[in-house]
Design brief:
single chain, about 500 residues, alpha/beta, Ubiquitin-like (UB roll), Elongation Factor Tu (Ef-tu), domain 3, 4 domains, six-stranded antiparallel sheet, five-stranded mixed sheet, binds FE2/S2 (inorganic) cluster
């Protein structure tokens, strides 16, 4: 008998992005019942059924088992305590099902026995008795188990699925992640503050399922809150394979508070001869809550030089799921005091940098159209953050990147683009080179027109003003609605 699984779980079972399954739902290839997909449908779409006769089934099953095993090995397993709790809760579920089955079995046997003497003189009752006997024989016959069902059971042990109320968003908790970490890794905008159990801002209410505490917390919940099922998401993880919690989520940049944090330079690394990575780290107890694509203002108190006390607003290049380690890309520029300090080694590991923010509304919208990212030079910073966010959300049918460099070493993270493209079916990228941003923008627009069959996408543009304005004008001229073009100026 087919089981029913969520779209999220179905994508894990067959090893495709969730966006691919959602696209098939929209195309009418997959029918959902209460938001669930039957494993029968999955098997049909990710096909083995027709292969049985040709003898290929075993090979396909083996390949699928190997791929599944690899995906399992790549996961960090939960702690022994969490595994034991999940095993216990699955054991309970199994025991419930067994008890029910035994009762149904006893009921059917009793009915059959009572029917037997009545069926002797009554043809209709005799037919009913035969039907009951045949049905019982079929139900008791040993059938090969459905491989997807087995995989689903194993996944329930190593990862838990969490559903948020009232949004209905879902994510999986893997390894030793807390509920908060797992939600952030999934690209969700959960409410939180310190991330270490002292502020109480990540309070959630458990509606269904079990949790286990993973660390000590200083914040004390009231007895009433505890009785109502409240707990801190940053200090708990899922103990049952399914969990439903009620929580607040930010709907956009306006819900993210402006913060001031004194960070430390963790490292400065050359990405290319003329581009450096500035890696700042926040204190453990004061992390930066931000949305992918946003910027912050950095304030430096340099020990020497005329630029003492300089400030500069920069887009964050890293993912909000790592709110302690913040990355920035800085190009060599003699007119920029921060770039001068960086390239002259006047800013070093261990130096303090004050940060204010986040700011800006260059963030992903909720649409489910294909996403097209267009960057020029270090405009790649917010674009990288957005791409990582889109990959975490796993909801866009496809992602394309067009990256123009105005100097020969300008594609300073081409390896990263290659890695995305090798790892993901739905990601493509094009690197372009032109010394002039405006003329380069025309080249980019031509590449977009040549590569995209369908222009009904959401476009995210980041780079210097002449570049962004030119690409925007080209897209508008091609018929892209203004609401589908989001831009950020990065000088
Ligand atoms: S984020 Fe502060 S207590 Fe959880």
């Amino acid at each position: 008998m087919a089981q029913w699984v969520t779209v999220w779980r179905a994508a894990q079972l067959v090893g495709v992005p969730r966006g691919v399954l959602q696209q098939r739902v929209r195309a009418g290839e997959i029918e959902l019942a209460d938001g669930l997909i039957s494993t029968e449908t999955l098997i049909k779409l990710y096909p083995q059924t027709d292969l049985e006769a040709s003898g290929m089934l075993e090979r396909v099953v083996r390949i699928r088992e190997e791929a599944f095993g690899k995906r399992l090995r790549e996961r960090l397993l939960p702690s022994q305590e969490v595994l034991a709790q999940r095993l216990f809760s699955q054991g309970q579920e199994l025991a419930d099902v067994q008890r029910l089955l035994q009762r149904y079995h006893a009921l059917v046997i009793r009915l059959r026995d009572e029917l037997r003497p009545l069926a002797v003189d009554d043809a209709r009752l005799a037919a009913l008795h035969r039907q009951l006997n045949d049905g019982l024989a079929r139900a008791l016959a040993t059938e090969p188990v459905d491989l997807l069902d087995v995989m689903d059971d194993v996944l329930k042990m190593v990862s838990a699925q969490v559903t948020l109320r009232p949004s209905g968003h879902q994510f999986t908790v893997e390894g030793r992640d807390t509920l908060l970490q797992a939600g952030m890794r999934a690209g969700l905008k959960l409410n939180y503050g310190c991330g270490n159990g002292s502020c109480g801002m990540c309070k959630v209410r458990v509606i269904h399922g079990q949790v286990v505490r993973t660390m000590h917390t200083d914040y004390a919940l009231s007895e009433t809150e505890k009785a109502q099922g409240y707990l801190l998401a940053c200090a708990h993880t899922a103990a049952s394979s399914e969990l439903t919690i009620e929580t607040l989520e930010a709907s956009g940049p306006a819900d993210i508070p402006v913060q001031q944090i004194v960070t430390q330079v963790r490292a400065i690394r050359a990405l290319a001869p003329d581009t450096r990575l500035l890696h700042l780290q926040t204190p453990r107890s004061q992390r930066l809550r931000f949305l992918a694509g946003q910027s912050v203002t950095l304030g430096l108190a340099l020990a020497q030089g005329p630029q003492d006390g300089l400030r500069r607003t920069l887009p964050i290049a890293s993912c909000p799921c790592d709110d302690r380690n913040l990355h920035f890309f800085i190009a060599r520029d003699d007119s920029d005091a921060l770039a001068q300090a960086l390239f002259a080694d006047r800013l070093k590991a261990g130096d303090a940098v004050t940060l204010w923010g986040p700011e800006g509304d260059f963030v992903l919208t909720d649409s489910q159209r294909p996403l097209v990212f267009v960057a020029c030079d270090t405009g790649f910073a917010p674009i990288k953050s957005l791409i990582e966010h889109a990959l975490s959300l796993d909801a866009a049918p496809s992602l394309s990147l067009f990256w123009l460099a105005t100097r020969p070493d300008g594609h300073f993270l081409a390896n990263q683009c290659r890695a995305w493209s090798e790892a993901l079916d739905g990601f493509e990228y094009t690197l372009l080179l032109h010394a002039d941003p405006s003329a380069g923008a025309c080249q980019v627009a031509a590449a977009i027109r040549a590569d995209l069959f369908d222009i009904d996408c959401d476009f995210y543009l980041a780079g210097p003003a002449p570049f962004v304005e030119s690409v925007r004008a080209e897209l508008r001229a091609a018929g892209v609605p203004a609401g589908q073009v989001c831009q950020e100026l990065v000088e």
